[in-house]
Amino acid sequence: MSTVKRKKLLTGPILLSAVKDSFIKLNPVTLIKNPVMFVVEVGTIIVLLMVLAPGYFNAEQSIGFNITVLFILLFTVLFANFAEALAEGRGKAQADSLKKTKQDITANKLVGGAVKTVSSSELRKGDIVIVSQGELIPGDGEVIEGLASVDESAITGESAPVIKEAGGDFGSVTGGTRVVSDEIKVKITSDPGESFLDRMISLVEGAKRQKTPNEIALNTLLISLTLIFLIVVVTLRPIATYLGVDLDIPVMIALLVCLIPTTIGGLLSAIGIAGMDRVTQFNVLAMSGKAVEAAGDINTMILDKTGTITFGNRMASEFVPVGNESEAELTAWATISSLKDETPEGRSVVELAKKLERSYDGKLAEGGEFVEFKAETRMSGIDLQDGRCVRKGAVDSVKKWVQSKGGVIPANLDSNSDAIARMGGTPLAVAVDNRIYGLIYLKDTVKPGMKERFDELRKMGIKTIMCTGDNPLTAATIAREAGVDDFIAESTPEDKIAVIRREQNEGKLVAMTGDGTNDAPALAQADVGLAMNSGTTAAKEAANMVDLDSDPSKIIEVVAIGKQLLMTRGALTTFSIANDIAKYFAIIPAMFMIAIPEMEALNVMGLGSPSSAIISALIFNAIIIPLLIPLAMKGVSYKAMSSTKLLGRNIFIYGLGGVVVPFAGIKLIDMIVSVWI
Amino acid sequence: MGILQIVAVIVILILLVKPMGTYLYHVFSNEPNRTDRWFGGMEKGVYKLIGLKKRDGMSWKKYALSFVLTNIVLVTFSYIVLRLQRGLPLNPNGITDMEQTLSFNTVISFMTNTNLQHYSGETGLSYFSQMAVITMMMFTSAASGFSVAVAFVRGITGRKSVGNFFEDFVKAHIRVFIPLALLVSLVLVGLHVPQTLKPSLEVTTLEGQTQQIAIGPVASLESIKHLGTNGGGFFGANSSHPFENPNPLTNVLEILSMWMLPASLPYMYGLFAKNKRQGWVIFTAMMTLFVLLLSLNFYAESKGNPAINALGIESSQGSMEGKEVRFGIPQSSLFTSVTTAATTGSVNNMHDTLTPLGGITPLALMMLNNVFGGKGVGLINMLMYAILGVFLCGLMVGRTPEFLGRKIEAKEMKLIAIAILVHPFIILVPTAAAFLTDLGQGAITNTGFHGLSQVLYEYVSSAANNGSGFEGLADNTTFWNVTTGIVMLLGRYVSMIAMLAVAGSLLKKKPVPETIGTFRTDNGLFTGILIGTVVIIGALTFLPVIVLGPIAEYLTLR
């Protein structure tokens, strides 16, 4: 996996602007979108009026208490605003750095054979431009002629340039990236303002952020809980009055604010924004928050073999001697032939020999002349100083070469090489002059750690299906080695769509990765489609996520991030609601104690006085929001395990913790507050 | 000994759950089974009579509409009968027509399975009214609730449709309520409960004075009163009256009659869900809450009234004020808990005279309204809390919450929000209104904390469609008749229709296959979550009023 640059969580300017924004967000017109916090703000205004005109409300005696309540309420709203502003700020900072890339670029537009210099903003879909070495590509497009290496670090953060060429799957270029060699002709595919970069900026800025279905459902619940407690508190006053218990308005507002789910209400949008942000930090661009949440729900994952599960290039995995030759000698000669071979295959031979701890006489190769692989000979090797020639290469070519030197072909050479081919491997024959020693079994190798990751996915309840163009035998070998649950051999893009449809018909959510134009329909059909940035525009348009590093195995982490996002939301909701028990026990006795002294029996926390109890509960209620901001931003820790275990663990931490923590917290705050009151 | 009596009844109940639940499943699964042989013919006759040839599955809207319309027709008929009962047959005691608001209250009360009685049966109703209105509605309201519950279960367990209301309604009568009522009536008659159409007896007492002793078709009403968790008594004194509930044996029979069907419904649900453990989770959550609250009542009542204890009066028997000597504390305590849990509302002791802490039990059980609950409603409510629990905690496994393989999304949460909002709303708002108005305050006969409990109890009982009274409240006035009438209506229909809509919405969703990553709702952990959700969301709402009512009374009485 590529290295992901972790941007710093908090920087001074982001903090500062978040503080500023938390005041701007006090505007009731915008705050009403968060009904829980809006209720707190209304409460704050009522207490403010009581503080400003105590005579009118008959509240002269309790003005000190009311001012305290006023400030705590104000801070409750500010803290919630701050959480949201902070999450947004990080997105904005990212957008700003992207905007720098998006400066006005001069483009060399091709008009009827002549080149005309225009501004990039004048380019329209279908225009053709020429971009030469050192120039910036003026807009998203497809290479229609030429080949060039392009530095895409502005978008991906990856400094190594990538090759872009006309035709095939490597033809799409992104505006704002720089051509570092050669010259290409590009057909522009987007109008100004709709380019990939534009969309990316608006996404990370959170400008187009819409609530996800899950957030809407949770919001509905939070609103109804708020309404329930509003009913509870409002009806309490006439009932208490009948009993001769007078309830002050600020005390009732305090009870209300403590009971409504302010913790989750204040952090909900921050959790959503931060979740998107985590995906972005990971260099994956999600087109919507919905896509990230859908990733958490994935049941089936369809993965391409080559590039995702395996390295895609073939590596030596076994030495197969033929005839009467020994494996030791075969290994020695195979290694000697490869010592100067810098191709991945050659290096893998040497590595395998090392791994098997075979000895060979390295000195033999010294001074020898390396023979490079050529398409005509289909062999490579070394001509030793002592005159002997060592060759390895395609079996047919080596056979011919040996025969030309008068050698005999061992009887079991063909059967062994066929066996390797049937298993999907590539056999390389090794010969010294007229003697064939045996075969090197080259095969596609599974990336390290893939098996463990598939095990993790299985623990999460996700089924993996490997797609490959290989024959069924090869596919089965790799599938077994990688530990995927299922595979489709000799698959076509149509097969992928068929599999996705089949799984979806069973009610499953499917994720897949792809980069080619022929992957586009499947990417669109899948619930989560992750396109590679190196892929074609069609693939990127069809997908709902784009990986800027073009590492298809990142889909696994995206699923984990999606799950983490949902878990964080659930954990903080549970925590917030479980808090109510302690808050009830702090405020209820305090409310009634003056009129009904026997209520002291319910003061299980032994809080100092009625006012200190109410203020402590309110302070706890306010201060828990900033305390939980880091958790909301980072997400709760997630390890792959069965749902039952995961639930047990989270219920223990956030459910039981949610019941216990406020008891301790309120008591602690009360001990401090009691010093003054 | 006392505890043993309670435990014995609970054990019998648990033994009844499986056979009864299996039977109910066979009745409503609409798959051919043995019960067809016994009742199939009779049902065909009924279907022919009412022209119900094709019994296709309905959409939830059609189901809800059929349910409401059927109820409206029955309410209209009953209102007319009560207003004209004087001239109608079977009125040997010459009972006069019922007053307007009382009739309104009474028909709603019985149609909603509440059976809040602002009248006294002996003097307010003719035999015809008792049979054609009261007993009839006891059957039809129970069957209505049962049908809706079955429809809801079919919806969430992903059957083809929620079913056909009329078919369910007929089946509930013919295969469940009528045979059981017949059986229980006969046993009750055998245990000396009167069953006659003769007028009240006029007897000469030992002192030589004449006394009117009310009798009538008591056993037939008594059986369905409990089986249908109705609770409206033949006599004003309800099941504490020696003709309604003559001895401990009838007491146990009545307890089991009202408890058995609601307690079997979770098992039936488990069979519908093709996972019996789902059913047991619901049952266990209900039973746990029940035992906790029963223990509170039993403990408080056994300890006696602290004020009386302080006077040095012997109270080893516990607080016997308002209780029948033939039942004692354990049989009274169990009856009180079951009747409020199952939202029956019949009483064998006066809840007004319960000790303050003991009084919390009936209040709390009705506030929760999901511990067994009335005909079907309890199951629906508990499942609603299960969905809510899944939604709250399900996110913590990192997936969109799903219940029985169906995703819980915004639409379901909106409907559930209505259902969880309406219950505290219709209890707390009218309670506050009663204290704000002279009309409301005028009925309160006790001052202070107990007065609050009286008013609260009346609305809680109405909202939960329980119908028991705290008594002591002079509630036959226009204010109380109308407000409790409205509360009963809202308490019954709003949540039922909302939950039918949830069932309809879930039914449309494609089921998600279960994997190891799925949030499991059939294990002990979920039972705990369910209880926690009920306590935190269902019960904490009412904590302030409980504190001001019974708890304040207890604390000041100590």
List the helices and strands and how they pair.
The complex is a heterodimer of chains A (677) and B (558).
Chain A (H helix, E strand, L loop, with lengths): L11 H13 L3 H4 L3 H18 L1 H4 L5 H39 L4 E6 L2 E6 L8 E4 L9 E11 L1 H4 L5 E4 L6 E2 L4 E4 L2 E5 L7 H10 L7 H30 L6 H11 L2 H20 L2 E3 L2 H8 L3 E5 L5 E12 L5 H12 L5 H13 L12 E3 L7 E5 L5 E6 H10 L8 H10 L3 E7 L2 E12 L3 H10 L3 E5 L4 H11 L3 E3 L4 H13 L4 E5 L5 H6 L2 E5 L4 H6 L2 E3 L7 H24 L1 H13 L17 H25 L8 H31 L4
Parallel strand pairs in A: 10-17, 10-19, 17-18, 19-20, 20-21
Antiparallel strand pairs in A: 1-2, 1-3, 3-8, 4-5, 4-6, 4-7, 4-8, 9-21, 11-16, 12-13, 13-14, 14-15, 15-16
Helix pairs in contact in A: 1-5, 3-5, 3-9, 5-7, 5-10, 5-23, 8-9, 9-22, 9-23, 10-21, 10-23, 11-21, 12-13, 21-24, 22-23, 22-24, 23-24
Chain B lengths: L1 H27 L6 H16 L9 H25 L15 H12 L9 H4 L2 H30 L8 H26 L10 E4 L5 E4 L4 H10 L20 H25 L3 H28 L2 H5 L17 H14 L14 H13 L8 H18 L7 E2 L2 E2 L2 H27 L1 H4 L6 H16 L14 H31 L15 H16 L3 H15 L1
Antiparallel strand pairs in B: 1-2, 3-4
Helix pairs in contact in B: 1-9, 1-12, 2-7, 3-4, 3-6, 3-18, 4-18, 6-7, 6-8, 6-18, 7-8, 8-9, 9-10, 9-12, 10-12, 10-13, 10-19, 12-13, 13-17, 13-20, 14-18, 14-19, 15-17, 15-18, 17-18, 17-20
Main location (chain B): membrane
Family (chain B): Belongs to the KdpA family.
Membrane topology (chain B): Multi-pass membrane protein
